Amino acid sequence: MRRLGIAVLFAIAGYLVAAAASYLLVDLFSSKVHDRSVEAAMTSALVFGPLGAVAAFVAGFIRGGRNASQGK
């Protein structure tokens, strides 16, 4: 249960970090002028945010399974 809880916390943090970073990157590098902010918001919320959450969930699940006796 602890392992799953850590993985969920990692996923939430991963979503927020990935969404914020991708919003800034799309906003900076998009060639669209008239709807750049909408493109940045939708891409970060619906593409990169979930991808970051999945990657962070896997990392949290792996990291949460380690015991203190299993070396650091």
Q: Helices and strands in order, then pairings?
A:
Blueprint: H1 2-29, H2 36-64
Describe the structure.
- With 72 residues, the protein is mainly alpha-helical.
- The chain has one domain.
- 79% of the residues lie in helices and 0% in strands.
- It is built from 2 helices and no strands.
- It is rod-shaped, with a radius of gyration of 16 Å.
- It starts with a helix and ends in an 8-residue tail after the last helix.
- The mean pLDDT is 90.
Number of domains: 1
Order of helices and strands: HH
Tally the beta strands: 0
Using only CA atoms, what is the Rg? 16 Å
Helix content range of the residues, please? Answer: over 70%
Strand content: under 5%
Runs in which pLDDT lies below 50 for 5 or more consecutive residues are: none
* Count of helical regions: 2
Largest sheet: none
Q: Structural class given helices, strands, pairing?
A: mainly alpha
The N- and C-terminal alpha carbons lie at a distance of 22 Å
Q: Which word captures the global form?
A: rod-shaped
Oligomer: single chain
